[in-house]
């Protein structure tokens, strides 16, 4: 009995306590690790949503001479202003992929009388987000679907 | 059982319970629908912009019914489309001119 509960530094029950505490700490650290990974995933998804929403908004609200992906609206020369939500199909010829290292627009589809894909990127991604906006395309009320993906 | 070098049995039990409490306490993770309100607001704004070019209450009601699952459309205090109110909603309002340049107050409320 004396050998069991009288050691040089530790007693048996102290040893048992330390083991239990260490196991609890280990479980807690594993749990924290899982939560952190979930948080990182969530942040990535937020980034994807944000980029897709902003590119879609730019497409239906702005006019860009260089790249219609960032603005496909009609520019009224007389009034010297952009007509938001009024898009010209001529601008679809000037749609180019945006230059971001970790994000790209996979597909833009318009739907009014017919459904037509006006832009497509063959890159493969498992992490995509879709959004729908509305505008007049050559005077016809249309739905525009954007699909943004992470590389 | 209750006499150790540093910690007693009750203290060990307390430590275990404390650790379990830390495990149960959830960490703050952001809401999945962070941008849903913004998307709905943008879509409402899109329609108000489109309707400003061609004011037609019949067409406007159809647009709302076809594109939003649960929404209300009110024109000049008359409810044309009635949705079921829920806990969350996003509303947009604008004054639009019809073909006779008469003002109409248009409100669209999307529930989610």
Short description:
The complex is a heterodimer of chains A (151) and B (112). With 151 residues, chain A is of the alpha+beta class.
Task: Explain what the structure shows.
The complex is a heterodimer of chains A (151) and B (112). With 151 residues, chain A is α+β, with helices and mostly antiparallel strands. Chain A has helices at 2-5, 12-61, and strands at 73-76, 81-87, 103-111, 115-120, 128-137, 140-150. Chain A is 36% helix and 31% strand. The model of chain A has no long low-confidence stretch (mean pLDDT 89). Chain B is built from three helices and four strands. Chain B has a four-stranded antiparallel β-sheet with strand order 2-1-4-3, covered by helices on one side. The termini of chain B are far apart.
Radius of gyration of chain A: 28 Å
**Largest pleated sheet of chain A:** 6 strands, mixed
**Structure classification of chain A:** alpha+beta
- In angstroms, what is the radius of gyration of chain B? 27 Å
Report the average pLDDT across residues of chain A.
Answer: 89
Biggest interface and which pair forms it? A-B, 35 and 31 residues
Shape type of chain A: rod-shaped
Strand content of chain B: 15-25%
Total strand count of chain B, please? 4
Notable characteristics:
heterodimer; A: 151 residues; alpha+beta; 2 helices; 36% helix; 31% strand; rod-shaped; B: alpha+beta; four-stranded antiparallel sheet; 3 helices
Describe how the helices and strands are arranged.
The complex is a heterodimer of chains A (151) and B (112).
Chain A: H1 2-5, H2 12-61, E1 73-76, E2 81-87, E3 103-111, E4 115-120, E5 128-137, E6 140-150
Parallel strand pairs in A: 2-5
Antiparallel strand pairs in A: 1-2, 3-4, 3-6, 5-6
Chain B: H1 9-24, H2 36-53, H3 57-67, E1 71-75, E2 78-81, E3 89-97, E4 103-111
């Amino acid at each position: 009995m004396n050998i069991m509960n009288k050691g040089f530094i530790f007693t048996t029950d102290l040893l048992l306590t330390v083991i239990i505490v260490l196991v609890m700490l280990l479980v807690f650290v594993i749990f924290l690790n899982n939560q952190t990974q979930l948080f990182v995933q969530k942040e990535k998804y937020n980034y994807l949503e944000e980029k897709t929403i902003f590119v879609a908004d730019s497409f239906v609200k702005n006019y860009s001479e260089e790249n219609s992906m960032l603005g496909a609206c009609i520019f009224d020369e007389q009034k010297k202003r952009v007509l938001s939500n009024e898009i010209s199909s001529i601008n679809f010829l000037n749609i180019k992929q945006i230059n971001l290292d970790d994000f790209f627009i996979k597909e833009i589809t318009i739907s009014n009388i017919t459904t037509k894909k006006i832009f497509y990127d063959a890159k493969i991604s498992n992490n995509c987000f879709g959004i729908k906006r509305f505008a007049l395309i050559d005077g016809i009320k249309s739905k525009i679907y954007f699909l943004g993906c992470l590389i | 059982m209750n006499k150790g070098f540093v910690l007693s049995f009750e203290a060990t039990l307390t430590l275990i319970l404390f650790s379990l409490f830390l495990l149960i306490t959830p960490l703050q993770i952001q809401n999945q629908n962070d941008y849903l309100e913004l998307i709905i607001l943008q879509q409402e704004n899109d329609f108000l912009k489109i309707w400003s070019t061609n004011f037609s209450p019949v067409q406007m009601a159809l647009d709302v019914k076809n594109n939003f699952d649960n929404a209300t459309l009110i024109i000049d205090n008359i409810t044309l489309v009635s949705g079921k109110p829920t806990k969350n909603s996003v509303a947009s309002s604008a004054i639009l001119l019809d073909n006779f340049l008469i003002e109409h107050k248009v409100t669209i409320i999307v529930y989610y």
